[in-house]
């Protein structure tokens, strides 16, 4: 019976994840990664952006990422693939 309940819970979670709308996800801009590390098996990354503050430009955090090692590897691979896509596009233009 516990397995049946677990299956129902997993099915409900999967339906909830599948129904998430990309439009509701935040867009996070960053032009700096001032802090990163590894704490208790979790990869930590702080994204930041330059913002005006009075007459100065300051670096302000825009997101604090906490990722499993698997998610961090997938993110790193995705970023490298995105760079490669851009390089191929630039090479075809030149």
Can you tell me about this structure?
Helices cover 45% and strands 34% of the residues. The protein has 94 residues and is α+β, with helices and mostly antiparallel strands. The chain has one domain (2-93): Transcriptional Co-activator pc4, Chain A. The longest helix has 25 residues, at 69-93.
SSE topology:
Layout: H1 2-18, E1 32-39, E2 42-53, E3 56-67, H2 69-93
Q: Return residue spans where pLDDT drops below 50 for at least 5 consecutive residues.
A: none
What is the top-level CATH class? Mainly Beta
- Arithmetic mean of pLDDT: 85
Residue share in β-strands: 25-35%
Q: Biggest sheet: strands side by side, in what order?
A: 1-2-3
What is the name of the CATH architecture? Roll
Report the count of strand segments: 3
Order of helices and strands: HEEEH
Q: What coarse outline follows from CA principal-axis ratios?
A: extended
In short:
With 94 residues, the chain is an alpha+beta fold. It contains two helices and three strands.
Task: Give descriptors for this structure.
Transcriptional Co-activator pc4, Chain A, extended, 94 residues, alpha+beta
């Amino acid at each position: 019976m516990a397995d049946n309940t677990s299956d129902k819970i997993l099915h409900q979670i999967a339906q909830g994840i599948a129904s998430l709308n990309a439009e509701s996800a935040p867009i996070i801009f960053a032009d700096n990664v001032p802090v990163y590390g590894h704490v208790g098996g979790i990869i930590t990354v702080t994204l930041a952006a330059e913002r005006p503050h009075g007459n100065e430009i300051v670096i302000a955090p825009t997101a604090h990422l906490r990722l499993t090692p698997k998610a961090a590897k997938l993110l790193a691979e995705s970023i490298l693939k995105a760079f490669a896509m851009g390089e191929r596009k630039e090479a075809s233009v030149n």
